[in-house]
Design goal:
Layout: E1 6-7, E2 14-15, E3 29-32, H1 42-56, H2 65-77, H3 83-91, H4 96-110, H5 122-130, E4 134-137, H6 144-151, H7 174-183, E5 191-195, H8 198-207, E6 211-215, E7 234-236, H9 242-250
Parallel strand pairs: 3-4, 3-5, 5-6, 6-7
Antiparallel strand pairs: 1-2
C-alpha cells in the first residue's frame, strides 16, 4: 500500500501498516489456502491427469501420463494460472477451435470434483494455530471445505464460513486476498498467507504487505520465485510443523488480537 494511506485511530490518523508505538503491525490473522494447504489434492490431480491425457490422445495416441507431468512442470514454472489449460493449449498446436472444444470438455468433466479430504497433519496444526491467530480460508473452493472441517470438529476454529463463492474475483488477483482480509475485519498487513503456490498465493499476498508461507506440497512443490521480491518469508516441506513455524515467526503478542477458538 502507499505510504499515504491511513486508517483512523483514537490517536489520530496513522499510516496503514504501522502502530502508534511505531511497531510493525501485529500479524493477527492467518489466511489458509484450501487446496494443497487444508486439503490433500493428490487424488484430484491424478484425475485431472487422466482427463487431459484422454483429450490429447484423440489426436496424439502416444501421449502418456509422463508427458502430461512434464508438460505440467513446464506450465508451473511459467506461472500459468491453470496448468491443465496451459497443457491443452500447448498440445493443440495453435488450433484455437480444438483448444476451445477441449477446454469445454475439460471444464465439464473437472466440475465434478472428488470428495474433499483434510490433510491428516492439519488436524493438529489448525487448533494449534487458532490458539494465537484468527483463521480464515482463502482458497478456490466452496462451502464443502467447512463440511470437511466440521467432520473433524475444526470448523469453529475459523472466523467465518466465507468461501470462493462469496467473492467476485479470485487468485491471483491481489484484490482477492485483500477482500478476504477485509471480510475478516482486518487490514492486509495484519495477515499471514499460507499457500502452496508462489504465483497464486505468495505473490498476491506480498503485494498486499502480508507475511507469506510457502508449503511445498502437491504438484507445485518445486515452483520457484522469479525474483527476490517474490520469495516467501517461510518455506516448509509439508503441513507438519506449520503452527510452530508461524507462531515462532509472527506470534508471541496475543494481547494484540483476539485469539481463535475451536470450542465454538
Amino acid at each position: 500500500m502507499s505510504g499515504e494511506a491511513t486508517r483512523n485511530s483514537d490517536a489520530g490518523d496513522i499510516p496503514v501498516g504501522s502502530s502508534p508505538a511505531g511497531r510493525p503491525p501485529a500479524r493477527t490473522t492467518v489466511l489458509l489456502d484450501a487446496g494443497g494447504v487444508l486439503l490433500d489434492e493428490s487424488e484430484h490431480e491424478k484425475r485431472i491427469c487422466t482427463l487431459v491425457v484422454d483429450l490429447v490422445r484423440t489426436v496424439s495416441s502416444n501421449y502418456s501420463n509422463e508427458d502430461y507431468w512434464r508438460d505440467t512442470d513446464e506450465a508451473i514454472s511459467r506461472f500459468c494460472p491453470s496448468t491443465p489449460r496451459c497443457v491443452l493449449w500447448k498440445r493443440c498446436d495453435g488450433d484455437r477451435d480444438r483448444y476451445e472444444m477441449w477446454a469445454d470438455q475439460y471444464r465439464h468433466a473437472a466440475s465434478r470434483r472428488l470428495p474433499v479430504r483434510l490433510y491428516d497433519a492439519m488436524r493438529h496444526e489448525i487448533p494449534h494455530l487458532a490458539e494465537q491467530f484468527r483463521l480464515v480460508m482463502a482458497g478456490q473452493y466452496g462451502p464443502e471445505v467447512y463440511d470437511e472441517l466440521a467432520r473433524h470438529g475444526l470448523d469453529g476454529c475459523f472466523a467465518n464460513r466465507l468461501s470462493q463463492k462469496d467473492f467476485g474475483l479470485t487468485k491471483p488477483d491481489p484484490r482477492y486476498v485483500a477482500r478476504v482480509a477485509a471480510a475478516a475485519g482486518v487490514d492486509p498487513e495484519e495477515c499471514v498467507m499460507v499457500g502452496d503456490r508462489i504465483d497464486k498465493d505468495v505473490i498476491p499476498a506480498k503485494q498486499n504487505g502480508m507475511g507469506t508461507v510457502f508449503l511445498r506440497t502437491g504438484i507445485y512443490r518445486n515452483q520457484k520465485p522469479r525474483t527476490p521480491e517474490e520469495a516467501p518469508d517461510l518455506v516448509l516441506d509439508g503441513c507438519a510443523g506449520l503452527a510452530d513455524a508461524v507462531i515462532g515467526r509472527w506470534g508471541g503478542r496475543p494481547e494484540d488480537h483476539e485469539r481463535g477458538s475451536c470450542d465454538d
